[in-house]
Amino acid sequence: MNVIELKDIVKTYEMGGVEEVHALQSINVSIGKNEYVAIMGPSGSGKSTLMNIIGCLDTPTSGLYQFNGVNVSEMDDNDLAKVRNKEIGFVFQTFNLLPRSDALHNVELPLIYGGIGATERKRRAMETLQHVGLGDRVHHKPNELSGGQRQRVAVARALVTRPSIILADEPTGNLDSKTGEEIMALFQELHDQGNTIILVTHEADIAGHAHRVVRLRDGKVETDELVVKRKNHPAVQAS
Amino acid sequence: MYFMTELKEGLLISFRAMRGNMLRSVLTTLGIVIGIVSVTLMATAIEGVNRAFARSAAAFGTDVLYVSRFSWVGNMDWALIRNRRQMKVEYASKIERQANLSDAVAPVVATRRRVYRGDKSIEDAFVSGTTHQYINAAGVTLEDGRFFTAEESNGGRPVCVVGANIVENVFPFEDPIGKVIRVAGHPYTVVGTAEKQGGLFGIFTADNRVFVPLLSFESKFGGRRDVTIQVRVADLTQMEDAKLELEGIIRKLRNLAPGKANDFNINQQELLTETFAPISLIIASIGLFITGLSLFVGGIGIMNIMFVSVSERTKEIGIRKAIGARQRTILLQFLIESASLCLIGGVLGLAIAFPLSLVVDQVLPTAMPMSVVFISIIISLVVGVVSGFLPAYRASKMDPVEALRYE
Question: Which A residues, 86 through 115, put their C-beta within 8 Å of a C-beta on chain B?
Fold first, then answer.
């Protein structure tokens, strides 16, 4: 069974009640377990809209979205919040950590909203932070961490609930290329451990890490193809 | 369990937020502090007014029972009353011996006479004939001199104690003690003056009175008058028991067979308190309403700052929603924040109001009622929740996509 099943997804925005913008026009995409997919496209192609829908932050105007076999396209806000909490780990371009909370608390947050007790929560958050290589930075606040470390905290926060998918939106966009490669290596590692990863990006070399690339243009899927020459990629060769 | 986790998280967030905006939090809370201070002080002042009234009512004799042929209130058949047997002076000493719950008994007879000294006079002064026990069986306190003694009382000596009005009118420029006044022509030496009571109802105050020994009164102004027997109850809380005891004693003195109705009435000055109660209520309502307005203004301040706080933290709300915070969670978070702000304001307000109430106590003897403390705490919580609700609701309804995009 596919984790994500998008059928004829349409998203239309009304601008000022007169003009309609067709952000997505009949998208059909399926993503299976342990896939590593990049969604690419120039700005305005609808990739952010698609990401919001896949991430259950938004619902489609029409079409069917099944997540792990459950129809989420018509869920209400609270049920969507539950799906986001349990099944989706977000990694954002701007990290989106809570500035006043330390790394540990940031990672604990999804578990708090998941109703996990304090002891279990701390244990899992610590474990996940160690997993992303930040075991010695747990009590640092975001402004005391480097960009790469912040993104690692964000990845830990995404991972800590053991979600069905990790949804990364331009995860290297605010990082220098070296740190960016480190984060991409972390994603590769997570993928190797069995996680399903969806990358949203406009950079071809970042998308090159994925096993499959879905290209959008003007709200439609332009191409959807597997990446074959992975072994030749410099990042893979370096590691 | 889940709720407790959310509550703890909410508290943590709000304390971080308050600390992050220390000055703003303090200024906002100030509105609640001022509101709580004014409301509690007003309540304390009202308490003081009530206490002051209770005290002056006591001066008029709330603890004194007046036994007479008549009832002060209600319409009774005059023919019936006219035929009632008179109260007798000697009841007083018998009541004093038999009653356990009363500690002073004085028979009082009264008439209206002209009181004068030289060309200074007062028409229609109340001349009361009574015994030395009167000073204990009424709410009268002496200003100067003394009340007449048992010897003077029993000997029917021509001595008197005069009220404040008599002093003002008959002795405007001299010390009345030791001077002789004439009551309808008969000379009486002033031995004491009564403290001014102020007239709520002229008849209940001693200001317009001249007290003379009963024996002297009877010989000069005639006996066979209606006697009122004033009985002071030893313990105000046992008022009803004392009344029952007194009733029994008088029935026995008057040889009333069981089953026969009383041919006398036991009056008390409840009339005053009954009059004051609604007035007090009106003062309290208006006072608390006006000071309550300042608390209301404080609440508006909280609401305003919560709106600011919510829009400042739009991004944070977006992040929280993205990682699974439900609407309820966000709502609760902001409600907790505004409730905590107000609660802190309420506690600070009480901490400020308490020493101020001690200052008020210097002018108007009072004490901050315990109930006011509890109610203030609850009110500040309620203000917090009410004024925080709209901002919190707006936060909870934010679209996560929009909120995440916010910079």
Answer: 86, 90, 92, 96-98, 100-101, 109-110, 112-115
